[in-house]
Amino acid sequence: MQHARTLATTGLLAAGFALGVTALTLKAADGGHPALDIALSTTTGFLFLLAGAVAHVRRPANPIGVLIALAGVALFLEDLQFTRNPVLYTIAVPLRAASSPVIAHLVLAFPHGRLRSRWERLLVAAAYLVVLGSGGVGLLVNADPRDLLAVSSGTAAAAVADRVLDLAATAISAGVVVALLYRWLSGRLPQRRLLSPVIVIALSGALASGAGTALGAGHPLSAPLLQAYRILFCLWPLAFLVGVLRARVGNAEMIRLLLERDGTGLAALVQDDEVWKDSRSIDALNAAAGLVLDNQRLTAELEQRLAEVRASRARLVAAGDEERRRIERDLHDGAQQRLVSVVLLLRMAGRRHGAELPPEVRALLAGTVEELQTAITELRELARGIRPAILTEAGLVPAVRSLADRIPMEVALSVGTVPRLDAAVEATAYFVTSEALTNALKHAQTDRADVRIAVDGARLRVEVTDRGAGGASVEGGSGLAGLRDRVQALGGELDVTSGPGGTTVRAVIPLGS
Description:
Elements: H1 2-30, H2 35-58, H3 64-78, H4 86-92, H5 99-109, H6 118-140, H7 155-186, H8 189-215, H9 222-259, H10 263-270, H11 279-353, H12 359-386, H13 389-394, H14 396-406, E1 410-415, H15 423-443, E2 448-456, E3 459-466, H16 479-489, E4 493-499, E5 502-510
Parallel strand pairs: 1-2
Antiparallel strand pairs: 2-3, 3-5, 4-5
Helix pairs in contact: 1-2, 1-3, 2-3, 2-9, 3-5, 5-6, 5-7, 6-7, 7-8, 8-9, 9-11, 11-12, 14-15, 15-16
């Protein structure tokens, strides 16, 4: 389709150039035309050809370039009536107003290259029918001896035909003006900006031409109005050319808007009637839309993978807690019970055979029992540090209260309404509290700490504050660094603020992890 349109445009431009040279020669040789009129008409025709060529090069998929070039060709066809050759004159008589329907078609189709409503199509069809039909009638009733097809030479019939043509042209001009006004009032701002030069000149020229034609050749205002129309008509191809050149800026703005909108906005802009739908703008839109869609796809994939990583880390935390509980059970039911059994056996042996044993052996036996008791105590503390049984059985708040009672410092505990939570959340909150209190006891040089635990919406907040020497850091491989990783694995955050006035450890843990 684009190749055929390119061939048609090239043919029109070649024919228009040849006709332009011919028309200029004929009007100059006729001697009945002012130099200004010849210059204006010739310049107008060549400007239409130039604007059509530029429009086609810039928008090869848009048929508006063909229409603009066709308007220039039609202008030069009108001037063939000044020939002295009877055959060429007979051909030119029906085309004496050939540019009128083409211009009406061009104005209503600009900038898309097509007529968008049934009324516009009817108006343009009527313009072609009336102009060519009246031209054919004028050919038959023409009194000029150069007309080879004239069947009547009556001047009255020719005058009636001319008057009918003038009135029909006036009605068509009024229809074009109404259609342009409606398009202007109903259009959006970008469309008005693009059509402004064309519509201003179209309205002014149509009003001047329509008024001058309606008044008739004998009216004193008819000639000035028609002369103003010729001057405005000369500016018309420049208006179309400005519209063609401004369309590139419009496409750049459209692409910028495209990048700023979502999928719905993309579709709306692509289908917008203000856009010149040519290959360049469509390629640019496709490229921009592709960037947006790629960004959205990559963002979705990144969010999905991030969710998978968080879920994986949460599973690792849960698996670690489960492994802690297993080790605790193994220590309690295995090694601890065996050590207790050994202690009982040694005590039983001491009671039965103590009198028979040498003093040094009895002392060695008593020392062994004491060491085993110490080992059992340390083993119990180790099992309790892995995961206190009270945390599993009673929940977070009782476990923290038990921790506060055992630690050798004053702990002010402030606890809101905290229900039973997910096991991983409870264990993480407990270990944060335990690590913060242990650090305060060992390093803060203080005898008091404040613990606040509360549920805030869908999050659990844990805050431990001391008024010690400060200096705590989450970096450097400390226990707080491991706790931060554990909290982040559940989708939460751990923050440590430490200075000369003390240290505050804050943890925020989502409940839905």
